[in-house]
Amino acid sequence: MANSQQKTGAGSEQREVQREQDRRDAQQPGGGEQKEPVQAGHRDYPAPPLPGQHLEKPGLEHAMQLKPQFMAPDYCGSGKLAGMAAVITGGDSGIGRAVAVLYAREGADVALAYLPDEEQDAVETRKYVEAEGQRCILIPGDVREPGYCRHVADETVRAFGRIDILVNNAAFQEHAGTLEELSEERFDLTMKTNIYGYFHMAKAVLPHLKRGGSIINTGSVVGLRGSQHLLDYSTTKGAIHAFTMSLASNLMEKGIRVNAVAPGPVWTPLNPADQAPEKIKEFGSKTDMRRPAQPEEISPAFVFLAAPSCSSYISGIVLPITGSVGE
User: Fold this and answer.
1) Complete domains list, the chain, with CATH
2) What is the pTM of this model?
3) 233 catalytically annotated
């Protein structure tokens, strides 16, 4: 009997808690109102609706109506990469450009690898690197070609005498509505750019990396959870995450660290060159922050993972920077 009363009492308490919460919920305004984008820094960043612009591939930053923010004016360099030399693939624009600027601000010389079609953006990025007081060389070509990747390594050593950091960042992305739409040729192009290119570059620079050197791969949130219309791109990003962890184990005894950054939606030429104008307007709106990141919100993570003073005990991680909780 006592046991029955205890059960009744517990149920009564639970129902009272439920009724109280129901009353509170009823007093809340309706859920249909538009929430503002979340701004967690010192200044506001652009949020949807964004310009409905569609770029021709490979996607050029100078052609974007809304220019990505990459200068990170609040970021103060402190010599974390002083005396080092970095290779950055896809370094002409987007995340690559933002990383190049901060690496230079931290004291590193920079070699930019990029497609020949992206020459104008690359020249502009070199100006920003040199304005930080560091040297910058431009090496156009295609990371799908092992010979080109070896050429990048050779030219970097010829110019700077060393390679300390490799940032694998070059990527190809094009959506497909269904598996049937995804041709073998397109799948091949995505795989060879996004994962073969990382493999070729890592192999090319490895003979020049010494203890304290690092490789940082650009992954993606879609490599963590997949994407319905980016079947091939998501596949390569998942492969990049696995490649990162495997290579980290492989190079551990050499004192060379390998990590990855997995961004969510970032406002770079990659996405306007993929999505239709009406879709790009809402780019990033489905994140918890309800906006895309700007490249300068991602680039400090690449400094952190490259600098031995910050991350000498970190290897084999995939660092998500997604604008959402728990991803």
Assistant:
1) 82-321 (3.40.50.720)
2) 0.89
3) yes
